[in-house]
Write a structure and sequence with these properties.
This protein is α/β, with parallel strands linked by helices. The protein has two domains: about 1-170 and about 235-345, Rossmann fold (3-Layer(aba) Sandwich), CATH 3.40.50; about 175-230, Alpha-Beta Plaits. Helix content is about 30%, strand content about 20%. The chain contains eleven helices and 16 strands. The chain has helices spanning about 15-20, 50-65, 85-95, 155-160, 165-175, 190-195, 220-225, 235-255, 295-305, 320-325, 330-340; strands at about 1-10, 35, 65-75, 105, 115, 125-130, 135-145, 145, 150-155, 180, 200-205, 205-210, 230, 260-265, 290, 345-350. Strands 4-3-2-7-14-15-1-16 form an eight-stranded mixed β-sheet, sandwiched between helices. The protein has a two-stranded antiparallel ribbon with strand order 5-6. Strands 8-9 form a two-stranded antiparallel ribbon. Strand 5 (about 115) and strand 6 (about 125-130) form a beta hairpin. Helix 1 crosses helix 2, helix 5 (about 165-175) runs antiparallel to helix 8 (about 235-255) and helix 9 packs antiparallel against helix 11. The longest helix is centred in the C-terminal third of the chain and has 19 residues, at about 235-255. The protein is globular. It binds iron/sulfur cluster (2 copies). One iron/sulfur cluster binds near residues 191 and 223.
């Protein structure tokens, strides 16, 4: 059973003392280069973690004489965070440059500067952004919300997808590919223009996806105004994706034995992730902040708290993520992560 510390939203102004009590300083030794792994958000909404709620983390790391870097990797699909220049513009527009920690987009401008990490018993390596081989401690700062491929986007997702190189991201997505309803498609061509892999063409005025080119980024699913594109949600493809996420998270964590700490921000808990311009309305009111040394327990506890909170559409006791993403049981990533030895799904919440 793992300990998860909980700061209710009403006490959020006491975040610094909460993090101290939860044990953040224990993972920082003098002069350590400390990765503060974050998602800087997207233009179009303000669901990223507010810089003022990151500031106490930066200050604690500095007090411990560590060297904090706010860091993320460039994304796979086309968009403002697919290259370092516009990704850093997002960093600035969301105010993170005010913090006393430099921002670093790991993995190089093309996302192809990587290291290979192998886990015992696994035949293939994980491809991670190169800088994760240089950092000496890792603090995952995660905005907890839903995700259309993994059910939830928590610490496991932040680590698994967020620290991977572009090749690693591709490897995790590769077997997932959307389907187009010919009867619903009106031939507008919007998906053709926006597919980052140039995988879509119009054939007889209907969109067609070349399976050899599609890497399953799911951009087209959201772009299509006729909602003609959907992901054929077999539990296999979502399960595979989640198992790969857990494997990649395990590869990341293998680089930081005893040097990892997780903070989940249960604020703006939307059905979709921060990569989307319109992630949807929050499923429940803001809950607070969780912290733990255990990446599995913190996600399990986060999902539990969302379940036990009354939302607009569902009362307490209903698992909102399962309602929104019925074919993406988020438990898969947690079970797989537990199997890999990353942590425990059993948790005990200690409220601050
Ligand atoms: S077809 Fe859709 S899912 Fe496949 S790469 Fe293009 S935009 Fe992404
Ligand atoms: S965006 Fe939708 S409606 Fe337009 S061509 Fe693509 S699939 Fe058809």
């Amino acid at each position: 059973m793992s300990q998860v510390y909980f700061l209710p939203k009403e006490k959020i102004d006491r975040l610094a003392s909460f993090l101290l009590q939860a044990g953040l300083p224990q993972v920082i030794s003098g002069k350590n280069k400390v990765a503060l792994k974050i998602h800087f958000g997207s233009s179009g909404h303000q669901n990223h973690i507010p810089p003022e709620l990151v500031e106490p983390v930066v200050e604690i790391v500095r007090k411990q004489k560590g060297q904090p870097f706010l860091t993320d990797t460039n994304v796979l699909y086309r968009g403002e965070r697919d290259n370092t220049f516009s990704h850093l513009e997002v960093v600035w527009s969301h105010g993170y440059q005010k913090l006393k920690a430099p921002s670093l987009i790991a993995g190089g401008f093309q996302g192809n500067e990587e290291i290979e990490v192998r886990l015992p018993g696994k035949s293939h390596p994980a491809y991670l952004a190169r800088e994760f081989g240089y950092f000496e401690a890792l603090v995952a700062l995660t905005h907890f919300k839903g995700h259309l491929l993994s059910g939830i986007g928590g610490t496991i997702k932040n680590l698994g997808m967020g620290c991977a190189s572009r090749k690693g991201k591709f490897a995790m997505h590769a077997s997932v590919q959307p389907a187009i309803s010919r009867s619903q498609c009106n031939g507008c061509g919007k998906c053709v223009k926006n597919c980052p892999a140039q995988a879509i063409t119009l054939k007889e005025k209907k969109a067609w996806i070349d399976p050899a080119r599609c890497f399953g980024c799911a951009q087209c699913v959201h772009i299509c105004p006729a909602q003609a594109i959907d992901i054929p949600w077999s539990s296999t493809s979502s399960s595979q994706f989640q198992e790969r996420l857990a494997f990649y998270a395990g590869a990341v964590l293998s680089l930081f034995p005893g040097k990892f700490f997780a903070v989940n921000y249960l604020l703006n808990i939307t059905p979709n992730c921060d990569c989307l311009r319109k992630p949807g309305s929050p499923l429940v009111p803001d809950i607070g902040v969780l912290a733990s040394f255990d990446p599995v327990a913190i996600d399990q506890a986060s999902a539990y708290l969302v379940k036990e909170t009354t939302g607009q559409s569902w009362p307490a006791g209903v698992d909102k993520f399962q309602k929104v993403w019925p074919n993406c049981p988020y438990q898969v990533q947690l079970e797989e992560a537990e199997k890999l030895g990353l942590g425990s799904r059993k948790f005990q919440i200690e409220t601050f």
